[in-house]
Specification:
By secondary structure, the protein is an alpha/beta fold. The chain has eleven helices and 54 strands.
Length: 934
């Protein structure tokens, strides 16, 4: 055993050494220690030279070369370094314009380069890009680049993701593509490839790992059969988009080589004619096939064998003949899988066939603008999964309010006819689809657009170029969806943006385009945003709500935040912010909600919070690195209702002036929601008001509060610090406090004797301190207490007697060796000798005159507890007699917060009645002998 113990200690010691080495060498670049990796000087100079060739109108690069972080280029906006070597490995830019300076390509350790959605003024890609031979991800989408693709791009043999789409390149050959054998994703959409002609299939065949290929609108000509090389073809291609080109039927011979890999194939809006090629029906792995916008004239019978096909679009073709015959060609295993069948805008005749009932998985069926006749067969009612019904309304709407109506799962196409609306709310309507491009160009009158609480997915376009951009005071709510990609560029005059609870990523620098000063509301919380905060907030002088919570943002809060003089709510919780709270934030004197919890802020809690932010109602600083004492100035926050300073390094005593937090002593609710002229989310209960949201420790569990529930809490949480001294007796006047948590500190002394005055307390946690003395008898008056933890202190004496105190588990009192009484022990020392038991306040050792009276009380108390327990079960079972409890106490002037409190009161009353009857019986039997003086 000693040998094993010795080896165990050696192992622990070795692990500690490794941890020390990791820290001292600086592997973790986010620790902020003195030994962390710093950027390499030559690379810093390359970045600064590159910056000189750019125009940064929106301050996206304001951190590059600033005095504050002049040499720390690894902390600059859009720059990430290896935490081992210090080399720049990630570079992302947004909302800049200028030229691609070749100095950039001195960063030869780059693995990720994303310049999408910038304006490089028709400049060319420098040949020196070939030096970035470690690059794995290159995104130049929508960069306004021109010229030819340099052959040196072939040197980027590590590339896995390449996006050159939506530029003005003049491409004459694709030889540079062939060496990129690790390429998995390639997007060259909207690039003219007409001159590469027959080279395309040959090049694609040489990319064995290519999985996704987008060649949308590339002006591709037809592909001649003789140009198709007879070599082994990639079997990895799963998604292929060749729509909006000039391809013809001969292309299908090349496509047939991917019949065992293709899952999604888009051939819409090409030059196909005649019958659909039979070999397309042999692609047995296809799930999506879009052949719309061609001149196809028939459907091959082989399509019936596409057993995995879920989406088939043949609209806007030249399909002729009778509908029953066309449908019969789809019979087979396809009938079991097909979910969407789009045959609109053709020349199909005849009635709707009864056999359509065989397609039991159909969710969408589109036969519009054909030449059908007859009546609908009754069997169409068997299509139980049918969800999408197309409709062209004969009217134009000004306001469209369809909240919580069932419109999905597809985006309602009838909206395409509405071009004059000013108000649109289709939130919570079950839409699970991409937002179509045509939607953003419907109405230039729209001032409110709400698509929240759906399952919308995909990437948003540049909204500053849409018709919506012409609207004055535009408000957009896309919250609670599945949207992804970078934040879009918004119109300059937008007023409200809610993109919370999506999957947006990258920087928030694109928001710097909002320059009009009209922005009032910005919520991008609960996303995957990263980088530092830009310094362009000086333009948002009208902002009332700023919520960036639950992202991956880091760095210091810029001092420009002080320009937000109208700000009432600031949510930065659950990020990686660091440094001290900037003094400039004190200029935001209208702040009511300040959420900084779960970050890495440090330093002392500023005194100006109490001096300058007198409107604060919610102050959340939980789980940071704050140190020092709790400033007395926090006592000036007379409107505070939730004060959470827990899990920091605060020391010294709790301020004696805590009783000045008068909002915690008054019944009036000082918290107010932030009002806006119209409703901004899908919850009708909000009624045009924004309610702050936060994660709060409530009765030992972390819970999310919002939709107006947060303002109903009155909480002080100072737990998990290093506080010393006594609990101020003045705390007892906070009559409306609902939760008090002072656990895990070094507090000493007694519990204030008047704590029973805090009769609204539902949760009290004083555990793991050094408190001592008797428990005050007034604790028996805490009738609403449902959570109690006094464990691991030095309390002594008897636990006060009350229905509440004895209802807690013994774990609430454990770790106090000198504490006695129920629920810890049946009796206290000395009870057996005197033959007496307590009745109420054990702290004063009050005793009944007779042990028999105590014995008679126990059955009543147990019966009352049993009735209370049965009552709780009745609530769970929704038994009708649960209403009896409230009826019994309806006329009593007793505050009953919930049914549990009511049942406790009922149980206590029954217990007292039983006790009285037993006591009277005892007297009759002369069990109690009166004392006779001599």
């Amino acid at each position: 055993m000693m040998i094993m113990g010795g080896r165990f200690l050696q192992l622990v010691y070795a692990l500690l050494i490794l941890l020390h080495m990791q820290t001292s060498v600086g592997f973790n670049s986010t620790t902020g220690g003195e030994n962390e990796i710093r950027c390499i000087e030559s690379e810093r100079q390359a970045l600064l030279a590159f910056k000189q060739s750019l125009v940064d109108e929106y301050g996206s690069l304001s951190s590059w070369g600033s005095e504050e972080e002049k040499k720390e280029c690894c902390k600059w906006e859009g720059v990430e370094c290896s935490n081992i070597t210090g080399h720049v490995i990630v570079l992302t830019l947004s909302v800049v314009r200028g030229n691609l300076n070749p100095s950039l390509f001195k960063l030869q350790h780059l693995t990720f380069l994303d310049f999408s959605w910038n304006d490089f003024n028709l400049s060319h890609i420098p040949e020196s890009i070939g030096s970035l031979n470690k690059l794995q991800h290159l995104n130049l989408r929508h960069c306004n680049l021109s010229g030819s693709i340099p052959n040196q791009l072939a040197n980027l043999t590590s590339l896995q993701h390449l996006d050159l789409s939506h530029n003005n390149f003049n491409i004459k050959n694709l030889e540079w593509l062939s060496p990129l054998s690790y390429l998995q994703f390639l997007d060259m959409s909207e690039i003219d490839l007409s001159k590469v002609n027959n080279y395309l299939p040959e090049v694609i065949n040489k990319l064995p790992h290519l999985t996704i290929l987008y060649l949308y609108a590339c002006n591709l000509p037809y592909i001649l059969p003789q140009s198709i090389p007879m070599i082994n073809t990639s079997t990895s291609l799963a998604t292929l988009d060749l729509s909006f080109n000039n391809l013809s039927a001969s292309t299908s011979q090349w496509l047939s080589k991917f019949n065992k890999s293709l899952v999604s194939l888009y051939l819409s809006d090409n030059s196909f004619q005649g019958l659909i090629p039979e070999n397309l029906g042999h692609m047995t792995y296809l799930e999506t096939l879009d052949l719309s916008g061609n001149q196809f004239g028939g459907i091959p019978k082989s399509f019936g064998n596409l057993c995995k096909l879920r989406y088939l679009a043949l609209s806007h073709n030249n399909l002729v003949g009778m509908l029953p015959e066309l449908i019969s060609n789809l019979s087979g295993c396809l009938q079991l899988s097909l979910e969407e069948l789009i045959l609109g805008e053709n020349k199909i005749k005849g009635p709707l066939p009864d056999m359509i009932k065989n397609f039991m998985s159909l969710r969408q069926l589109d036969f519009d603008n054909n030449q059908l006749n007859g009546s609908l067969p009754k069997s169409i009612g068997l299509l139980s999964k049918l969800e999408c019904r197309d409709w062209i309304p004969p009217f134009q709407l000004d306001d469209i309010k369809l909240v919580l109506c069932k419109l999905g799962p597809k985006f309602p196409r009838w909206l395409k006819t509405q071009i004059n609306f000013s108000y649109l709310d289709i939130s919570g309507t079950g839409i699970s689809d991409n937002i179509p491009k045509w939607f953003w160009n419907l109405s230039s009158w729209a001032f409110h657009v709400n698509l929240s609480s759906n399952d919308l997915y995909g990437v948003l376009p540049n909204l500053s170029t849409t018709k919506f951009a012409d609207s004055f005071g535009l408000e957009i709510d896309l919250s609670k969806n599945k949207l992804e990609g970078p934040l879009p560029i918004f119109p300059v005059n937008i007023t409200l943006i809610n993109l919370s609870e999506n999957s947006f990523s990258g920087s928030i620098s694109s928001l710097c385009t909002i320059t009009s000063g009209n922005l009032v509301f910005l919520d991008v919380s609960h996303n995957q945003l990263s980088k530092k905060l830009p310094r362009c907030m000086t333009r948002w002088t009208s902002l009332v709500v700023l919520n960036l919570a639950n992202n991956h943002l880091f760095g210091k809060i810029p001092s420009s935040i002080g320009s937000l003089s109208c700000l009432e709510s600031l949510g930065l919780q659950n990020n990686n912010f660091s440094g001290e709270i900037p003094w400039a934030l004190g200029s935001c004197s209208a702040l009511q909600f300040l959420g900084l919890n779960y970050n890495s802020f440090s330093g002392m809690i500023p005194t100006w919070i109490g001096e300058r932010l007198s409107s604060l109602t919610f102050l959340l600083l939980r789980s940071n690195n704050f140190s020092g004492d709790i400033p007395l100035q926090l006592c000036w926050l007379t409107n505070i209702m939730l004060l959470d300073l827990s899990n920091n390094n605060l020391s010294r005593s709790i301020p004696w002036c805590i009783h000045n937090l008068t909002a915690l002593a008054q019944k009036e609710n000082s918290a107010r929601d932030h009002s806006f002229p119209i409703r901004i989310d899908a919850d009708p209960k909000n009624n045009g008001r924004y309610a702050d949201k936060a994660s709060v420790m409530w009765k030992g569990m972390e819970r999310d509060y919002g939709n107006g529930n947060l303002k109903n809490l009155r909480i002080i949480d100072l737990s998990s610090n290093k506080l010393t001294g006594e609990i101020p007796v003045q705390i007892s006047v906070l009559f409306e406090l609902v939760q008090l948590n002072l656990s895990r500190n070094q507090l000493a002394g007694r519990i204030p004797s008047d704590i029973g005055q805090m009769r609204q307390l539902e949760s009290l946690d004083l555990s793991q301190n050094q408190l001592s003395g008797h428990l005050p008898g007034s604790m028996s008056q805490l009738n609403f207490l449902s959570t109690l933890n006094l464990s691991y202190n030095n309390f002594s004496g008897r636990i006060p007697l009350s229905t509440q105190m004895q209802s807690f588990n013994a774990s609430a009192f454990v770790g106090n060796p000198s504490l006695c009484g129920l629920p810890l022990t049946p009796t206290c020392p000395g009870d057996e000798k005197s033959g007496s038991e307590p009745t109420d306040s054990g702290g004063k050792d009050n005793q009944e005159d007779s042990s028999e009276f105590w014995k008679s009380f126990k059955p009543g108390m147990e019966l009352g507890a049993a009735i209370g327990f049965v009552g709780v079960l009745a609530v769970k079972l929704d038994h009708p007699w649960k209403h009896l409890c409230f009826l019994l106490f309806n006329n009593m002037r007793v505050r009953l917060n919930n049914l549990k409190d009511c049942l406790y009161l009922l149980g206590t009353a029954v217990g007292l009645v039983v006790r009285e009857h037993v006591s009277r019986l005892g007297r009759k039997l002369k069990l109690f002998e009166p004392s006779v003086s001599s």
